[in-house]
Amino acid sequence: MKKTFLFTLVALFALVLAACGNGSASSSGGSSTSGSADGSASTSPSNQKGVVTIGYQKGNTLNILKEHGNLDKALSEKGYKVEWKVFPTGTVLLEALNTNNIDFGHASDGNAVFMQAGGHPLNYVASESPYPEGVALVVKADSEIQSVNDLKGKTIGVTKGGNQHYLLLVALEKAGIAPNEVNIKFYKDAAEGLAAFTKGEFDVYGTWDPYLAIVENTVKTRTIVNGSGNSENRTFYFATKDLLDKKPEVVTTILQELQNADAWANENKQEISKILSTELGLDVAPLQKANDRRTFGVQQMGEAIIASQQKLADKFVDAGLLDAKINIKDAVHIDKSVIPSNIK
Q1: Which GO terms describe its cellular component (predicted)?
Q2: CA atoms of 109 and 150, how far apart (whole Å)
Q3: 24-131+234-338: CATH architecture
Q4: Which end of the chain is more exposed for a tag (fewer CB within 10 A), N or C?
């Protein structure tokens, strides 16, 4: 029974990852074009100003915006057609942004830090609301580990440079435990991590939503620490310099409609869970659990948010993940006049 359960669960994870990376739209950035709220190609003569290409990952807020359809309609009314391109990871998405293959996109805090550290131009335009409960370190329910204070000599599985890696480093520092006093093992994706944790290769498993919610719903675990008070677990929105300089009104419209879609998502979390279930090929229940513990919303790149992202970057320098210190402010260029009135 246990073997069958494990096989089924790991196969599910593999299926999800394959769908995200090798779907019909292509892992290198498959695209769909739409110019109307229902996603159909618009034949309106008003679409004369060009195409705005937006990169997204399945399951994130830009995916919600795409499915909601309000941005396609808003930009169509301004003379633009939207082309949506799906990417398997934030790193690949940011590479496409850097080469002007897309105009706008969304990626994680860690993705952005590593891209900037690699010397690639980056333009933060806004942040999603913090999601601290969406990342955690968990143990099996019968584990002797009760808190972070018990981690000396234990093996912890995380993705290198991921949100759970950052959470681990912060939690260890607070507990007065040096990183070299634990055994940190890196896994490449959620399927590999879950399999290793289930087989006992990790004492502690670092993971993130929606996979965290899946683990909580299917395996008897306990959370020893999550992001609350430790990691804001933010994601960010980025644009090319060309889009910011030449078409700032497009950035304004994207951010405005993102906020509108996020507000709708907060009031319709069951519907959002069903939409994402279809997109990701996952059961609704864990997605509902994940959505219930987050608040959707776009925020300006204010000083506090920049400082939080700087703290993450500095922590990765201290851990030897980055070769040199970077300055997050160097990648924040958006003019306040571009921010729509519905974003604070």
Answers
A1: membrane; periplasmic space
A2: 28
A3: 3-Layer(aba) Sandwich (3.40)
A4: N
